[in-house]
């Protein structure tokens, strides 16, 4: 049996527990057999699990992070979250992408009528009614039945209705009260900034408070890449009302993002998630691994300049058609926020101006459909043979300046490619895992060719034997095994 493509961690809504992931798991199995592992998570106070220490959303997120840390296999995963779980998922995603959780691989989110970061819209009368249901302890069967009925557009199938009611009755009265009085009213927007992940948000048209018409407003500014899906004849209980639609969106998002970007093996993912990797390093590696937005709009360059930079990047750093990294978009993003190496040749304009001038001039010279001529043009600029060509468009941009600018472009594109964690794994670099708080030596013990320390990925060589330690200690010429075992990137052009 082959390993699944990835994992879907499911965070249920108020009153529901890990059992609520069963319809989604069945729909995914029917639609994409064996591709996904679904892990339902019992939030505190749900499904018989202990209550959280307090009623804060952060306490709920603590439990979720601990489960994901224990269950994640190092491969890519999505968070799928419903209602109350959606608010918790925002904090969880923020912790993972900042490196504060010992987890790597978060690739996207599928949110089902999620509760927002701000206080959840609910009338005082409705809140009072729901609180009255636990005034005397566990929710009665009649009130659990009423709760389920209020949250669906049409009645559920008998088996689903029984499963839903049973889950609501297992809910801790304390957890129920805490969410209604504290968690749902808490504003965590100061704790969670924009989460720039591939995200799809599904909501029902018959959901009064958290439905399709409300979600774009409630999530405004939270998920820049969010795509909203409106489901007709659907209430609030999407995991039971529309599991096939949810599964279809998971598969669609996965294929458009995870399948389209380079991935690490789970062993490399576990190394990044381990305590050997410092939280800061884990955070930026997690963010770099996220798939590029296929609808990316340039922030520093014009659309035409970005197109030219993509064409140039394809010649300087050849990649397969898929999976690939949008190097040009990442360079544009760096330019927009002023991230650079801080160096340029005398007389060279600032980075953004240089890129705009250089790309405009290169576009005027670029042989559109002939790769051999494109390569010849690049070679000519690099070698200096084209240093005497006239400035294009009447600018004062000279061939020498173009040569110097192209030097910077080659450096920038190579740096962006190599900074991706999948590229680091490809060349065998694991130096990011030498600065964390793990016990024992933080650095390397073995520094011999074709040998590795026990914590390093197996593909980097054989574990060194103790007998060789003394011989290695006195030899200053041994390099790190990741370098000695680095695989040649044959398709990368000689210009890099």
TrEMBL record:
Pfam families: Abhydrolase_6. Residues 8-248 form the AB hydrolase-1 domain. One of its GO terms (molecular function) is hydrolase activity. Gene3D superfamilies: alpha/beta hydrolase. Residues 451-496 are annotated as: Disordered. One of its GO terms (cellular component) is membrane. Keywords: Hydrolase. InterPro entries: AB_hydrolase_1, AB_hydrolase_fold, AB_hydrolase_sf. It comes from the Bacteria. Coiled coil: none annotated. This is Lysophospholipase, alpha-beta hydrolase superfamily. It comes from Agreia pratensis.
